[in-house]
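User: My collaborator sent over this chain with a note saying "see what the structure looks like." That's all I know about it. Can you take a look?
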Amino acid sequence: MTDAEGALAGIRVLDFTRFLQGPYATRVMADMGAEVIKIERPGGEWDRRLRLAPDGFGGFFHGLNRGKRSVAVDITTPAGREVVMKLAATCDVVVENFRPGVMDRLGFSYEELSAVNPRIIYAGASGYGPHGPRSAEPMYDMVAQAVSGVSDFMRSPDGVPRLATRGMADSAGAMFLAMAIVTALFVRERTGAGQRVDASLVGACLGMHTAELTLTMYEDRVFRPHGRVTSTSGAFRARDDKWFVIGATDQKLWRNLTQALGRDDLFTDDRFARSRIREQNRAELEPLLETVFLERDRDDWVATMAAHNVPVAPVNSFLDLAADPDVRANGYIVEQEDPKWGTVKTVGFPFHMSASPASVGTWTPELGEDTDVALRAVGFTDEQIDELVSGGIVERGPEASVDKVVAQ
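Assistant: Without extra context I'll predict from the sequence alone. Here is the result:
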């Protein structure tokens, strides 16, 4: 932990998001020091019950909502709308990932919120984007991967479309959404004015494949990554049935690879002399390499490749990462103390800032944990809060201390 303030310290975020794309974007902001007030319906959003461990731990929800405050309010009621409008008046950012039009119908459009807070950054996360004939249609990660061409790009050798990975569109969409919000905050520092920003799952998928799409559209054909990237770049199996990946992509690395293998004959073989020729003859080269790699265990090969400056790594599972020394040294996996679940391993922050570092915030809030504190802060009396609770407009959980720090 550090005493330095995060880059977004002092920024308040009103978070209406659910599932993955939106909550991940706002969790990144919480890690960077923002105060994120998560709006949930009474009873809690479905994410709290999604993919629970046998003991009830919700890793999906925990990983996306740590360091936030939870306010439970029925936003479909006039009294609930008043609560939201008072909170929005004190916030710098509002983030939502309902289908386009839902926030407008609820009375929380950009125009309505900016009328009470002209400096507000209003961020919308959607499936297709804010424009176009399908903009109001529902969208999930796997649908976005299909629409954007990613599933086609990742077809198996027998032609079956596949997901690149579960949550790829959502995660990429979260990063672009967070980038748009932070950029809008930067612009506001210059101009004093807020604005609306939008990010989408389909747009994120395309943005993540910029180089491939440019090549594809220029040559009018798709370059699908069947098998290894090249004959000398990809995954190989070792004698102990463990896998590792090497990346011998140029002539210098080809030389290093043949020396690591102790196979100068491959380097001098005319069939494999240059990269273009090697790829023309990869049907002959790859089986040769596969046979050689089956002669020794994976860790032996990894050490040998590294000693010869061949880019190499074992194929880790997610379970391996907690013990990976570089992952731990960079804080990509960290341990967090949670008052309910004890020590929890979780993902840290993906980049570093020397003067205003991000860090894992406090625990994931219980439903309604911060309802009282947040409402008192915008002028509600205890009596008014009690009336809202008894009327089912808001829900309170085990109340957090007013000294609770959201991100450290």
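A starting point for your reply to your collaborator: Residues 168-191 form the longest helix (24 residues).
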